[in-house]
Specification:
This protein is of the alpha+beta class. It has three helices and ten strands.
Length: 183
């Protein structure tokens, strides 16, 4: 069965920034009604599950201005325009936790907020972690990042989630992707 899609009747860019843009589109919806839809357009992102061994997971603690809190979360980052998710995951691993992943295993792709944003998050399990070698490209942290990196037993991360100490949804989803035994 073929489902109908929306048709854009008019398009306006409200904001264009470094990470995302905001659009107000006049749309004819599949049910025939017209509506103005405000949409955040995003290049996509990667979420990292760096595992130095099968029982440990590396989290980062960072300040999130939007919620005015320091939180523990999985390392993540936005894709550069045209960048492939796997390349972004490798880059972000070195940039945020200072390690190079020997193996990247895709775990899934999800839309975190499809009601108003087209961002897709691609989750990767990263293993065979090692310090960068002399031949590795130098990758610097973003200017707005102040990260504390720590390895936790997966069991402890699950306790932090259940106890409400980890409040970041991408981290909860990522840990869930490790398998039901993790949670």
């Amino acid at each position: 069965m073929h489902e109908a899609h929306g048709v854009v009747l008019a398009h306006q860019t409200v904001f264009a920034g470094r990470i995302f843009s905001i659009h107000a589109d006049r749309v004819r919806l599949p049910n025939g009604r017209e509506a103005t839809m405000e949409v955040v357009r995003h290049h996509g992102s990667v979420v990292l599950l760096p595992m130095p061994d099968p029982d440990h997971l590396i989290l980062v603690r960072q300040y999130r201005y939007a919620i005015d809190q320091w939180i523990w979360e999985l390392a993540a980052g936005s894709l550069d325009p045209g960048e492939e998710p796997e390349a972004a995951a490798a880059r972000e691993c070195q940039e945020e936790i200072g390690l190079v992943a020997g193996r990247l295993e895709p775990l899934g792709r999800f839309f975190p907020t499809p009601g108003y944003c087209d961002e897709v998050m691609t989750f990767y399990k990263l293993t065979e972690l090692a310090a960068p070698t002399a031949g590795s490209p130098v990758v610097a942290a973003d200017a707005d990042e102040d990260l504390r990196v720590q390895s936790f037993p997966v069991e402890e991360v699950c306790r932090l989630i259940r106890g409400g100490e980890v409040v970041d949804l991408k981290t909860v989803v990522g840990v869930g992707l490790l398998g039901e035994a993790a949670l």
